[in-house]
Amino acid sequence: MEALREFKDRGEPVAVVIADQHAPEMAGLDLLREGRKLHPEARTVLLCGHADFKLAVDAINAVALDHFLVKPFDGERDLLPIVSDLLDGWQGARDRDAAGVRIVGERDSSGGHMIRQFLAGNNIHYQWLEPDLDEGKTLLAEVAEPDRGQLPVVVFPDGVAVAQPSNVELASQLGIATRPTLDHYDVVIVGGGPAGLAAAVYASSEGLSTVIIEREAPGGQAGQSPRIDNYLGFHAGLSGSELTRRAIIQARRFGAEIVRPREVVGIDWRGDDRILHLSDHTTVRARSVLISTGVSYRRLTAPGVSELIGAGVYYGASAGDAQDRRDQHVVIVGGANSAGQWALNFARYARQVTMLIRADSLAKGMSQYLIDQIESAGNIEVLTRAQLAAAHGSDRLESLTLKRDGAGTGDRVPAEAVFIFIGALPHTDWLQGKLICDDGGFIVSGRDLGGRPADWPLDRDPYLLESCMPGVFVAGDVRHGSNQRVASAVGEGSMAVRLIHQYLAERE
Ligand SMILES: Cc1cc2nc3c(=O)[nH]c(=O)nc-3n(C[C@H](O)[C@H](O)[C@H](O)COP(=O)(O)OP(=O)(O)OC[C@H]3O[C@@H](n4cnc5c(N)ncnc54)[C@H](O)[C@@H]3O)c2cc1C
After folding, report:
1. Each residue of 430-439: pLDDT tens digit?
2. Which among 95, 126, 145 is the end of a domain?
3. Could you list the residue range(s) of the whole structural domain that residue 488 is in?
4. Ligand 1: which atom is nearest the Cα of residue 342?
5. What CATH number is attached to the domain comprising 213?
6. What is d(CA 285, CA 268) in angstroms, rounded to the nearest whole number?
7. Which of 83, 86, 391, 398 is most buried, by the most CB atoms less than 10 A from its CB?
8. Residue range 300-322: average pLDDT?
9. Is the C-beta atom of 428 inside 6 A of ligand 1?
10. Ligand 1 atom closest to 195 (CA)
């Protein structure tokens, strides 16, 4: 503890703390709990005996323990890989703040938020500099005159500076592929969330020419998750950005292309070709298509909310957002698991987290393991039967009006940031009615189509996951009846590839 305090006083970071539960002067778990308060970003490992197994498993929830090892173990074989994995994750999060790309601008501006989201989502490291502090002023003075005018200004590693860049400009400057290399593929995957990434890994590893077209950043909703606890094989959970980083490497290793940021805005067919129209007015042709465009949060219509999006009001959150809210008061709207995960993540850094939920208890929409952690967090307040009635501020959020039980005019409370995590809407507008969707807009497939749809040209029923257009499959949250979980999305993505093989074989 003395060493941890000394590091804290010297402003030096701590990457990993490894503690023995049976250390002579302090129980390992107590040391990890106290150490976390000094170094919230440090990763933690508990060394324990067989009899401590339950205590260690409980600690995964109670103190967000990253790993535990039961003694006796082999240091080189068992501990080193764990530490090296934890160091990778810690370094990745830390590098995000380190040099590489430098940005000068107001953090809480909508332009700044868009850039941060794109860079975080694409795992690009950056350093954020405030324009009225020394480093920011110096950098602004160094860049060419025309680039200084409008903030934020992004300075790339090669010294090129661009004021208020679009996501496509950011991608091009950073060498990210923004166009497919071929004009005809075996499979085009629309959307690079877990379903799309899994499909890309299986399709490309099985020799199909494959491209993912992603409109923002690979990882989708899962990429926004600070800690996924229920994905098989990761007993201490893993962050969505880490899962995405691994999946991208795996998909690339097998030759899949990932094109971003490009939106698919339409779909057509000519004979056996499926034609996808992209937002830059180009097209890509394919023998088969997988639609895995997922869902995103519903919008709040309370007065003031839409005007302050990106300036204190945010839909979802991304890597780095929690660290940016050190000692602030953060409000979270929503009572499902995604809201719970972020409340816990913010609580590591923020002074106070307030959750607003419409129901009369968290149990209505959240898993019990998250409820337990929220209850023991100490700085998370849950307001039940509450709603956000208005957001106030001239150019950034200053306060919120919160209403309890729908009564009265509500209380006005000061707040620096509100993060909104409410209900899901499928990304299917772009289909313009070309595929059968349910009343909520989710794509209907397989047996749910109730036999052969009108104009179905083939002498068989649609395959499982096949939409009403032969050769166009659907996987993940955008599918009618999906389970809205990472594991289900990954499972459906891989299953879709098996069916695509079947479809392609039949066309041959
Ligand atoms: C904060 C948060 C925490 C979560 N935590 C968990 C958890 O702990 N465990 C769990 O099992 N599940 C969790 N979920 C749910 C899980 O993330 C989703 O079920 C999963 O991501 C669905 O994957 P998907 O590939 O179907 O869709 P998505 O993840 O939604 O990905 C869809 C992708 O398609 C892209 N796209 C959309 N339209 C277009 C278009 N027209 N052109 C090109 N690209 C397009 C989007 O940008 C997006 O990247 C969480 C969700 C959130 C938001």
Report:
1. 998 999 999 9
2. 95
3. 184-296+426-507
4. 1
5. 3.50.50.60
6. 9
7. 391
8. 86
9. no
10. 25
